[in-house]
Automatic annotation (TrEMBL):
Keyword Membrane: yes
Swiss-Prot/TrEMBL keywords: Membrane, Signal, Transmembrane, Transmembrane helix
Transmembrane keyword on record: yes
Signal peptide: 1-26
Regions that span the bilayer: 150-172
Domain of life per record: Eukaryota
Name by which UniProt lists this protein: Uncharacterized protein
């Protein structure tokens, strides 16, 4: 009885690990985005495929002369849990959440927008920032139509082959029985 409970526990743990490993596919990539020179939010059209959860950003390069950089994440379909995050020179190489418990329902895409809060101090013609963006990558669910067709078609084909084999077996047996039996007067 005890071994049965232990087996069930290990079986549940096994399926838990399988389900967790299927849903989480984290991706980190180095990004560099340019900033607008008029102090407004930049128009970055790089969309990242995203399944939901947390989005983190590690600022590695601050725009030249800037002391405060504002970064926000914008999903293609709107969505929530995106707030403006403030980065300063003290936040260089520090991992910060820029999206927390984000739920991506319909369009699983997001992009980064940024602007410098103190734009008058910028001392280069093309300001930009760089960093490492980490998020859970969206993985398309498998198309199960082919597997479903096989799961339905194979038993039907097996049944048809079995019926045909049974009928042929009976006919062959009757044929040999009629050949081997003595003829009646």
């Amino acid at each position: 009885m005890t071994s049965n409970k232990i087996f069930k526990t290990y079986l549940l743990i096994f399926f838990l690990f399988i389900s967790l490993s299927y849903h989480v596919d984290a991706k980190c990539e180095e990004i560099t985005n340019g900033l607008r020179t008029d102090g407004n939010w930049n128009d970055n059209d790089n969309f990242y495929s995203f399944s939901g959860g947390n989005i983190t950003f590690t600022l590695t390069d601050m725009p030249c002369g800037a002391s405060t950089l504002l970064i926000q994440v914008v999903s293609q379909s709107g969505g929530g849990n995106f707030n403006v995050r403030t980065f300063t020179n003290n936040d260089l190489n520090v991992v910060k959440n820029i999206g927390v418990n984000v739920i991506a329902d319909k369009q699983r895409l997001f992009r980064i927008q940024a602007k410098v809060d103190d734009f008058v101090n910028i001392n280069c013609p093309n300001p930009s920032f760089s960093g490492e963006l980490c998020y859970s990558k969206y993985v398309e669910p498998p198309d199960c139509k082919k597997e479903r067709d096989i799961a339905i078609g194979v038993p039907i084909a097996t049944a048809i082959i079995g019926v045909i084999g049974g009928i042929l077996g009976v006919l062959i047996k009757q044929y040999f029985d009629s050949r081997n039996s003595p003829s009646t007067p």
